[in-house]
UniProtKB/TrEMBL annotation:
It comes from Paenibacillus konkukensis. The keyword DNA-binding applies. Signal peptide: none annotated. Pfam families: AsnC_trans_reg, HTH_24. This is HTH-type transcriptional regulator LrpC. Residues 1-81 form the HTH asnC-type domain.
Length: 163
């Protein structure tokens, strides 16, 4: 992919509200070139969606988020893909990642209560054929997501190390 489009992606990732005119000014190009590049990125599904990063702790909308480590036996001919697809089709599932290391998939889900999340794991996820084990971790507090910190922070108190 050409560097021009990569730079547009980076600028939109930092702030999706940036207009093509502003991006053109930042990159020293024309608004028409930027608009066309964004359209191409959207049409080719490189840019899939524009979404805000929300600090849900400040919203009266209680929800529970859990990260679930899943060990599976890959399916012959399709590997991990078929099982990952079965999992990501559930509406509770927000993300599914193929991982290296001690487990195979990392599944992020949201529910209204701990009981709802536990029910998902025991009634929907664990019974899937080829799922060997699960380990659920509940997110207690988010400090940072996608490079954005959620809380005001004190000045950096780490000691300066100089050569």
């Amino acid at each position: 992919m050409e560097q021009f489009k990569v730079r547009i992606i980076e600028l939109l990732k930092e702030d999706a509200r940036r207009t093509p005119a502003l991006i053109a000014t930042m990159l020293g190009s024309s608004e028409a070139e930027v608009t066309e590049a964004i359209k191409q990125l959207e049409d080719s599904h490189v840019i899939i969606k524009y979404a805000p990063i929300v600090n849900w702790a400040k919203v009266d909308n209680e929800k529970v988020t859990a990260l679930i480590e899943v060990q599976i036996t890959p399916e012959r001919g399709r590997g991990f893909d078929a099982i990952a697809e079965r999992i990501y089709l559930y509406p509770e599932v927000k993300s599914v990642y193929l991982m290296s290391g001690a487990y195979d998939l990392l599944v992020e889900i949201e529910g209204k209560t701990l009981k709802e999340v536990a029910s998902f794991v025991s009634n929907k996820l664990s019974p899937i054929d080829r799922v060997l084990s699960t380990k659920t971790h509940f997110i207690l507090k988010k400090y940072k997501q996608d490079g954005i910190t959620f809380e005001d922070h004190e000045d950096d108190r780490r000691m300066l190390i100089s050569p």
